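Translate structure to sequence.
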């Protein structure tokens, strides 16, 4: 059985005493005779320090470690000038479609953008599904998009990007939508160009995405 810890802390000019119920990252939950308080560690007597964050450990397989290293160290070839111009035109029309709330046009130009990227980098074709509002995560965040490699045959190896926000249901800002689209395409690139079984969010992954995104977003500046 855990030993009850008694602590003191100042509150509105008084010194209160109570027992520790729970230790959190930044505060301690203390129960007094009348109320329960969340008290910063710095106010406690005797002085206490917050618990050290738990370090995540992962047992890497040889193939996972190899994929991670390759993802981390591999760069991407720059977009040829001709392809960059074609892509920037598609991105410009995609932005207009988002600003106008034109779902059909959003889907068409999102597919045109990735079709040109796949042609440029010699990757398999990839269908993009757009529309709908973002789903909320358990922690209160939002799913922006997803790269699918399983499921029904017509949606396998496809990308879904939500065109509206979860709470306000407003259309996503063009730059945000474009970054999500390129992010999910990055997993497709890693899978087929780098031949990775596991695609990780390494620094190399984001460097490759930024090299494409920064070029494509120029018409949106």
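Result:
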């Amino acid at each position: 059985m855990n030993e009850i810890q008694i602590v003191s802390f100042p509150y509105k000019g008084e010194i209160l005493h109570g027992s520790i119920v729970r230790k959190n990252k930044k505060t301690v939950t203390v129960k007094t005779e009348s109320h329960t308080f969340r008290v910063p560690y710095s106010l406690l007597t005797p002085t206490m320090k917050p618990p050290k964050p738990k370090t995540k450990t992962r047992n890497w397989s040889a193939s996972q470690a190899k994929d991670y290293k390759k993802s981390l160290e591999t760069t991407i070839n720059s977009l040829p000038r001709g392809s960059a111009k074609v892509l920037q035109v598609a991105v410009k029309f995609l932005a207009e479609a988002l600003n106008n709330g034109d779902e059909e046009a959003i889907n068409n130009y999102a597919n045109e953008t990735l079709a040109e990227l796949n042609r440029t980098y010699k990757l398999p074709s990839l269908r993009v599904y757009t529309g709908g509002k973002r789903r909320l995560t358990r922690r209160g965040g939002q799913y922006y998009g997803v790269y699918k490699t399983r499921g029904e045959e017509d949606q396998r190896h496809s990308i879904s990007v939500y065109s509206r926000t979860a709470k306000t249901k407003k259309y996503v800002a063009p730059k945000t939508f474009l970054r999500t689209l390129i992010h999910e395409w990055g997993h497709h690139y890693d899978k087929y160009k780098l031949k990775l079984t596991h695609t990780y969010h390494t620094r190399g992954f984001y460097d490759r995405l930024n090299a494409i995104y920064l070029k494509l977003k120029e018409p949106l500046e």
